[in-house]
């Protein structure tokens, strides 16, 4: 990166950090998606939360993170009611109103979950599952393969919910046949609910999907996004990055 650009970023960052005081921290929206982000004893924590907090701390920027239903969180950042959102998938539609970091926070795996006694197999072709009832999270993006299956009509029966736990309970009670969603989050929730013996993950994944932090356009200087990207890239080269991940998934059931 040219020295002039680095100096410009540093100058903007200094001014921004000065304006973001303890009284007016950077406002961040996130969702309840453990172990990536969730609230415990009034504190928002999780893999992505700790990564984001570490990066902003290194930038000298204080933050205020609040949990919202996923669709509402997206709407809030698009309407510039908050400064940024995490962890979300980058799509052409979202890029119109949001400014994404150039480095992903964490790559998750979109997977399918079914009841243990279900005779359902997945070979990588979603159209082979066209007759089944799916459960999905409202406004979530599970990768291009899933989006294409929806657009083409290969998948038609989809029930949307605002919380992942709703899907798991609906699957356990035979109200839907398949859950699609992020592997880590659903495995974590199954562990909490004690449903590992009732619900299983299908071995073939749908897609590996990177997730990001995205800023509200015109609300946060682009120099802040660039600095966040650089600091995140540096963190991902350090042992601390893997330590953050391991600290949350050590009790996740093996599959």
TrEMBL record:
Database matches in InterPro entries: Solute-binding_3/MltF_N (IPR001638)
| One Pfam family linked to the record | SBP_bac_3
Asked if the keyword Signal belongs to this entry, the reply reads yes
Instruction: Specify the protein name.
Output: Solute-binding protein family 3/N-terminal domain-containing protein
Q: Which domain of life is it from?
A: Bacteria
Organism of origin is: Shewanella algidipiscicola
Its signal peptide is 1-22
- Specify the taxonomic lineage: Bacteria, Pseudomonadati, Pseudomonadota, Gammaproteobacteria, Alteromonadales
- Domain Solute-binding protein family 3/N-terminal, which positions? 25-252
Entry keyword annotation includes Electron transport: no
Alphabetically list the UniProt keywords.
Answer: Signal
């Amino acid at each position: 990166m040219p020295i002039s650009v680095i100096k410009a970023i540093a100058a903007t960052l200094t001014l921004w950090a000065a304006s973001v005081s303890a009284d007016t921290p950077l406002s961040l929206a996130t969702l309840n998606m453990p172990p990536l982000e969730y609230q415990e004893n009034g504190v928002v924590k999780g893999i992505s939360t700790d990564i984001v907090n570490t990066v902003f701390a290194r930038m000298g920027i204080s933050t205020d993170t609040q949990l919202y239903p996923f669709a509402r969180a997206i709407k809030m950042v698009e309407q510039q009611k908050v400064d940024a959102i995490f962890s979300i998938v980058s799509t052409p539609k979202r890029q119109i109103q949001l400014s994404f970091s150039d480095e992903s926070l964490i790559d998750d795996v979109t997977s399918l979950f079914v009841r243990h006694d279900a005779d359902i197999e997945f070979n990588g072709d979603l159209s082979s599952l066209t007759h089944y009832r799916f459960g999905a999270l409202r406004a979530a993006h599970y990768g291009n393969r899933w989006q294409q299956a929806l657009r083409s009509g290969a998948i038609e029966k989809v029930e949307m919910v605002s919380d992942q736990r709703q899907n798991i309970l609906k699957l356990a009670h035979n109200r839907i046949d398949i859950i699609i969603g992020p592997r880590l989050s659903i495995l974590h929730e199954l562990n909490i609910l004690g449903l590992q013996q009732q619900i299983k993950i299908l071995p073939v994944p749908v897609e590996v999907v990177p997730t990001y932090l995205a800023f509200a356009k015109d609300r946060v200087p682009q120099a802040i996004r660039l600095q966040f990207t650089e600091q995140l890239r540096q963190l991902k080269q350090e042992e601390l990055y893997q330590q953050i991940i391991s600290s949350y998934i050590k009790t996740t059931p093996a599959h």
